[in-house]
């Protein structure tokens, strides 16, 4: 089974998560291709998709949304898993709980009608103050625990392993060994 692990990353954290997920899926015997969504030309040759994007202003990055728009027919016909990389774990209490409840449905609302989403997970990434404008740095001081790497690798692994369990249980696509 061929799986596209596609990503849209602003500063590299989402790319690193996508590479990690791709490697994790490959350990389960899946043929994976990890690629920036802005560089993927065709999608028909894939049997499933794991797509992720950094979250800015409570939305996926433009190249991720454009990818879904352009390839919606292929994505609607095959299984799709989504991951969004935001900063819920960096937020000060009680904001992480609110973010985990409110953010996931909002992020996929514009995609849900066009894509057969099997699952969607929101994970935290890396935040560096130098990546933020002045207003962003002020907001970071007020709302978060500060800059840092908030990626929860065991949680990401568990999610990727769950994706792999589903994919390896699906019937093999016609014409594939």
Automatic annotation (TrEMBL):
Pfam families, sorted: Flavodoxin_5
Gene3D superfamilies assigned: 3.40.50.360
Cited InterPro entries: Flavodoxin_dom, Flavoprotein-like_sf
Domain Flavodoxin: 4-88
UniProt-recorded name of the protein: Flavodoxin domain-containing protein
């Amino acid at each position: 089974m061929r799986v596209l692990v596609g990503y849209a990353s602003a500063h590299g954290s989402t790319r690193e998560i996508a590479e990690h997920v791709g490697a994790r899926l490959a350990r389960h015997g899946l043929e994976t291709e990890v690629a920036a969504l802005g560089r993927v030309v065709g999608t028909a040759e894939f049997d499933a998709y794991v797509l992720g994007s950094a979250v800015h202003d409570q939305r996926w990055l433009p190249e991720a949304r454009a990818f879904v728009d352009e390839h919606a027919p292929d994505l609607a016909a095959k299984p799709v898993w989504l991951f969004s990389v935001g900063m819920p774990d960096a937020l000060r209490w009680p904001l992480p709980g609110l973010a985990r409840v409110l953010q996931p449905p909002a992020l996929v609302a514009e995609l849900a009608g066009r894509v057969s989403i099997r699952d969607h997970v929101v994970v935290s990434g890396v935040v560096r103050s130098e990546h933020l404008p002045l207003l962003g740095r002020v907001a970071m001081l007020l709302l978060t625990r500060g800059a840092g790497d908030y990626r929860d690798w065991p949680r990401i692994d568990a999610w990727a392993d769950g994706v792999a369990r589903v994919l390896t249980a699906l019937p093999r696509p016609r014409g594939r060994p």
